[in-house]
Automatic annotation (TrEMBL):
Organism for this UniProt entry: Sphingobacterium hotanense
Keyword field: DNA recombination, DNA-binding
Pfam families (alphabetical): Phage_int_SAM_5
Higher taxonomy: Bacteria, Pseudomonadati, Bacteroidota, Sphingobacteriia, Sphingobacteriales
Residue ranges occupied by any Phage integrase SAM-like domain in the UniProt entry: 105-181
InterPro entries recorded: DNA_brk_join_enz, Integrase-like_cat_sf, Integrase_recombinase_N, SAM-like_dom
Protein name: Phage integrase SAM-like domain-containing protein
Statement: the UniProt record of this protein carries the keyword DNA-binding: yes
Gene3D superfamilies cross-referenced by the UniProt entry: 1.10.150.130, Intergrase catalytic core
Amino acid sequence: MATINAVILKHQMKRDGTWNVKVCVNHRSTPRYIETNNFVSKEMLDSKGKLKKAYIDKFLAKQLTEYRDRISLLGKKVDFMTSSDLRTYLLSSDNSNKQIDILENFNARVVTLHAAGRYSSAKCVEVVCGHLKNFSKMEKISAILVNSSFLMEFESYLLNNIKLSPGSVRTYMAVFSKEFNLLRKNYNNPAIESFPIPFNPFDYYTPIKKSVPKRRNLDLQRIISISRFKSESYPEQLTVDIFMLSFFLCGMNPKDIYVYLTNPEKSGFLQYSRSKIKARRKDGGVTNVKIPEEAQVLIEKYAGVIQKRYSSLVIFHKTFYRSWKKINEALGFKCTMYYARHSFANIARAVCKFSKDDVSFALNHKYGSDITDVYIEPDWSVVHKVQMGVTEEFRKGVIE
């Protein structure tokens, strides 16, 4: 049976000769303690060194009664709980009326994502947090104030005031939903019936309709034009060369190029885990690409160099953003790093006539059955076949 009492721990006397009063939660002969804001001197203790009843009745009786009542409400659940569980339950009850600030938590999340190297995700959460702050004109936003009306007004603000595209609004609202539900998961504890964020407003929110995505495909002739682009500006030449390296390596992301291609002598094949999906996939997002001659030249030129020249991925990515504007003006058509991966896939399917399944495998998209994959080793030759098919088409176009 669980018992609740007010106590002091004699060995924890402060330098000023006082003790902090604690609530002792004793269950199954195991005590756990909850600190209070009360401090007592020796005058408040009886001859046995325990708190005097008069002091308890005057300052702690109400709190002790509330704790006992809350434990009584658990009924037989107490039999399956430890003293630590009960302590957590009581503390959660104390915090049930505490306002949870989503801006504070979102900012903390940004720091966590940065520490994990998830810079793109951190940037998205940071942007959403900034928009929420500007929209609400508040320094703090309580989670329980976020309802379906709040979400609809915020969506309208992004569309009409910030002038974001429907696609961008969908993205930011999806980030908002994900982070809000993460808050609910962190703060709510169904095991002890603690729900400081009981309501999920996104259950009653309908996302804005998804617009048809713009194609990011370039034909072979334009890919060749990019490969022939020369600039005296190092950032611009780097941007074009990393684009082509991505194209030759099945649309390898610049982040993965920065992380995995550090050895200029790397040749033959490259096996790596795609950073974008490795945390979400059971197989760790592992893929294996062949290194053709065209890619080998670029690896020798940049592997180990870009890591020294650009101290972080954030700076590395900013270089591309600035450079593409000038490169596009010179080329006469729009292109970004995304186009390398999209164009590779389109050429593999439309020009080389590889099956969608083979192209999907080359791009390291999820396909097939999880159960079957347990039995079958990945056949990387399929990836290499698609890859070299696209590379050969590129070589033909260069000769012509």
